[in-house]
From TrEMBL:
It is an enzyme of class 1 (oxidoreductase). It comes from Roseibium aggregatum. The keyword Oxidoreductase applies. This is Putative xanthine dehydrogenase subunit A. The lineage of its organism: Bacteria, Pseudomonadati, Pseudomonadota, Alphaproteobacteria, Hyphomicrobiales. Residues 19-86 form the XdhC- CoxI domain. GO terms for molecular function: xanthine dehydrogenase activity.
Amino acid sequence: MTATETTSIPDVLKTAESWRSAGRSVALATVVETWGSAPRPVGSHLVIDAEGNFEGSVSGGCVEGAVVSEAIDVIETGKPTTLEFGVADETAWRVGLSCGGRIRVYVEPVT
């Protein structure tokens, strides 16, 4: 499954509920803060299962891979985390926001 740019917040939450009902372990990533010209607004969501399947978007494709990797760890440990991405930190060489903005993403297990 790939990220769907047009998935609305209710659709992503519906996907999370559907996956949980099917017995899949799920995490929810939510944009909680932005600076500059971040590609997704606060409140944007990405739902991820333990296999790395995902639906939604937190950055228009810029950092989804890194968020999915962290979300799998969150599912395994049950411990939420906050991720920060931008061109001015150490992650700039691994992932970056093409627009030059910064985002903070909260990732939590869905129980």
